[in-house]
Amino acid sequence: MDTSTTLKEQIQALMDSLADTALSAAESRHQSQAGEAHLLYALYRNDGLVGSTLRGHGLESSEIRLLMSDIPNRPLKIGEDPVLSASSRHILHDAHDAVEVLRQVQRDSHVELLLRAHGIELPEHQPTREQVEAASRTGVNLAQTVSPNRGRQVGVDYLSYTRLMLEAALN
Fold it and tell me: What is the pTM of this model?
């Protein structure tokens, strides 16, 4: 079995899942667009390591819901479905794991302030998709710390990639 194809499919499934959750969050608030705060909510709701790390730092879903409500957003018209904002589409298209989605979402100043209030900082750099795929073929475990200021708190071991690499290797 081609591990890189499996990884690509699993990565796409993760991005689709994040998009669906973000769009559902926008729709439930009668907002026409799902932006960075909606993607943060999707990451928070995800069962992966990023979601558990966000929750482990004390971030509450109510704080993210408040953030989604506070950021200006055109109301959803009757019969209209919400869409991803241009920036959210780019984030999900370019990212190759949930950590990268979080890194990109954090560029929004509102999201950054909320994350910093909980001591959540992201690594300055991360491996490229090619490096991660090469590492997955050789079984190398790539690790980055999401919260360097939290001592030995859970680190993100390339979030979904490590999990996906292991799942792909077992298939």
Answer: 0.72
**Closest Cα to residue 129, out of 167, 107, 161?**
161
- Which amino acid is present at 62? S
Report the range of poorest mean pLDDT among 94-103, 116-125, 142-151. 142-151
CA angle 101, 159, 41 (to 5 degrees): 45
Top pLDDT among 72 and 167 is at 72
CA separation for the pair 73, 71 (Å, rounded): 6
Percentage helix, strand, coil for the chain under 3-state DSSP, each rounded to 5: 60, 5, 35
The counts of H helices and E strands in the chain are 9, 2
Best CA proximity match to 164, nearest among 88, 96, 62: 96
Alpha carbon distance 90, 73 (integer Å): 18
